UniProtKB/TrEMBL annotation, chains A, B:
Source species of the chain: Paenibacillus cremeus
Keyword Hydrolase listed: yes
Residue ranges occupied by any Nudix hydrolase domain in the UniProt entry: 19-164
DNA repair keyword on record: no
Keyword annotations from UniProtKB, A to Z: Hydrolase
Domain of life assignment: Bacteria
Name by which UniProt lists this protein: NUDIX hydrolase
InterPro entries (UniProt xref): NUDIX_hydrolase-like_dom_sf, NUDIX_hydrolase_CS, NUDIX_hydrolase_dom, WH-like_DNA-bd_sf, WHD_NrtR
PANTHER family in the cross-refs: ADP-RIBOSE PYROPHOSPHATASE, SLR1690 PROTEIN
DNA sequence: GGAATAGTGTCTGTAAGACATTATCGT
DNA sequence: ACGATAATGTCTTACAGACACTATTCC
């Protein structure tokens, strides 16, 4: 047999240098709500936070980093990220998306390591449970603006920056806002969530745009009780507000039409 | 020293199973133009094509596949893809974007191999040069619809499907149409390019929308000669058409405003 | 004149954007 | 009554969508 012809019997991956590891790292976002100090009913103060863990081992021992871990041969990258999410944040079944690979030579002192970055959007309540469980001084929710100013391990600040800009983009072009909201919510809540993620967002006639314009009507629909009567909520206000829910519809955007 | 404490001196990556390779695979799209058979001036027939190579080695020997190759320790994934683009298609300096990783266990018979998928958008002319160079029976431009029906190596049909849907989305939400057009182009050319990539696209008042609506005006601008006179082209028509060029502006889309 | 592409006129209904106003109801 | 949030009225200008029409020039 011609030794130059490669086939199953003589294929040998180890003649090439191979990566030393392919972890996934996860940017876990949540929105915290705190009641306004005034006793009266009022909209809560919301803040976008990111979950960080303090490293216990070399490299970057003691520094804060994104949760993550090495992928195994028996799982896909997405499954790996799901496992890490469960192990490190104690949550399952949340919205998670892959967004980039980080592969710059030298990015990890342990060797040739390709990080696969995901972002996850989690309800505050799921994380709160976990944080009570282990009295973890090594797991923290940090406001994103603060996290961006911290000196994070590896290239995790770059990853966080990219994740944030991806989430902001998706917040405006898809219905991921639903991931931070209960099944049924008021228009103000939705507006607040969008503004929490995208501070520049401002839309004075928000309620009309989303409820009565032809092209957008259908993104959300009024919640009704079993008698078909509109469901209202006065959680945040004296005057009860209509509750809405997201539908499965999301418009296809285009700069040309 | 506590042997349970990992640090630079005792860190040993080889105690874990590591990937057998991290290639990049590239979906190279181009749009071919063929003159209509009628002798008269007319818009060409355009078709979206993808570059495939025929594999010479195990596995999938003889089958068609996306161009690609293994990443080296000294380069980033993007640099790897650039190198492959140069080596396999003979092109440099084209628009290329990373879009996904393919990591399902068993996807590659050679072992645990993570494919990093890019798409590239190339002018037909750059590829034509190359295809003449090597009388390559092993490199082919294939119409996308045909390629999707072929039995490609590995999970390359899935990769191609994903690339196509990504490019279609970006064709409508960004100005990547420019990658398939000369510096200066007519409105019909632009419209044709969009339709070639996104067959469903239809916009009866296209010219007015893109030239005279407040929110979109600024995506393209009229080309002018050095005397400030509008530049025209009669390449495709009896009546000369205004030439346009893309600006750096691309509107921020949102489903909420 | 016909064929092919380029581009405008015109009309109707709907939406955008800006602000003022009213509604509800616990405290 | 006031404060806070919810929601509607009103007005102007702009855009969407449809379709008929004119313009240019080679054949």
């Amino acid at each position: 047999m011609d030794p130059n012809i490669e086939n199953e019997s003589n294929y040998n991956p180890s003649k090439y240098r191979t990566p030393d590891g392919a972890p996934s790292d996860i940017v876990i976002f949540t929105i915290t709500s705190t009641e306004k100090s005034t006793a009266k009913k009022a909209l809560p103060i919301r803040e976008l936070q990111v979950l960080l863990i303090q490293r216990k081992k070399w490299p970057f021992e003691g520094q804060w980093a994104l949760p993550g871990g090495f992928c195994r041969e028996t799982e896909s990258m997405y499954e790996c990220a799901q496992r890490e999410l469960r192990e490190e944040a104690g949550v399952t079944d949340v919205h998670m998306e892959y967004f980039n690979v980080y592969s710059k030579p030298g990015r990890d002192p342990r060797g040739w390591i390709l990080s696969h970055a995901f972002f996850a959007l989690v309800h505050e309540q799921w994380l709160l449970k976990r944080r009570a469980d282990d009295d973890a001084a090594d797991v923290r929710l940090v406001p994103v603006e603060e996290a961006l100013r911290m000196e994070l391990a590896f290239d995790h600040r770059e990853i966080l920056t990219d994740a944030l800009s991806k989430v902001r983009e998706k917040m405006l072009t898809t219905t991921i806002a639903r991931e931070f909201l209960p099944e049924e919510f008021t228009i103000s809540e939705l507006y607040q969530v969008i503004q929490t993620v995208v501070p520049d967002f401002e839309e004075r006639n928000f309620i009309r745009k989303i409820t009565s314009t032809q092209s957008r009507k259908g993104i959300i629909e009024e919640a009704k009780d079993r008698h078909g009567e509109p469901k209202l909520s006065n959680r945040y206000s004296q005057r009860a507000a209509q509750l809405y829910r997201f539908t499965d519809f999301s418009p296809q955007l285009s700069i040309y039409s």
